[in-house]
Amino acid sequence: GYPLLCKKVFIKFFSDLFLFEGESDEAWLEKCMKESKKEGAMWPVFAFNSGFVVGKGYQDELSDLAKPLLIVNGSSDKRATDRVEYGKPENGGGTMEFVDGCNVIPYENAKGFTRVVKKWLKVVYVE
């Protein structure tokens, strides 16, 4: 189980397949391997993997979140078109923003992520 998922080859495989537009870099892989040793680190990994096993969407969870809600998604994410649904009123009505990148937006595209968050904050929390 978990120890196998923490091996560099598996982290790279899953990161390149699901998380990054291109290939993951060495700094990312080293950070993941280091963080995987921390207490409690296994639970997000199990949750991430179980989502793929059951193919679960997050509409119910999004509906229960406090508003206002910003959802930032990578434009090259293979599931981006499915995630447009998250911004619809019947699914929680969050503000959807797409930026260049795949799934690790603050890491892949810090400037784009910061830009959309600042823009959203100016609208939601008028100065």
Q: What's the arrangement of secondary structure elements?
A:
Blueprint: H1 2-5, H2 8-19, H3 26-35, H4 42-54, H5 59-64, E1 70-74, H6 80-83, E2 95-99, H7 105-108, H8 110-124
Parallel strand pairs: 1-2
How does this model look, in words?
The protein has 8 helices and 2 strands, in the order H-H-H-H-H-E-H-E-H-H. Strand 1, helix 6 and strand 2 form a beta-alpha-beta unit. The radius of gyration is 16 Å and the shape is globular. It starts with a helix and ends with a helix. The mean pLDDT is 80.
Short descriptors:
two-stranded parallel sheet, 127 residues, mainly alpha, 8 helices, 8% strand
Largest sheet: 2 strands, parallel
Distance between the termini: 49 Å
Task: Please report the total strand number as a whole number.
Answer: 2
Q: What's the overall average pLDDT, rounded? A: 80
| Helical segment count | 8
Condensed summary:
The protein has helices at residues 2-5, 8-19, 26-35, 42-54, 59-64, 80-83, 105-108, 110-124; strands at residues 70-74, 95-99.
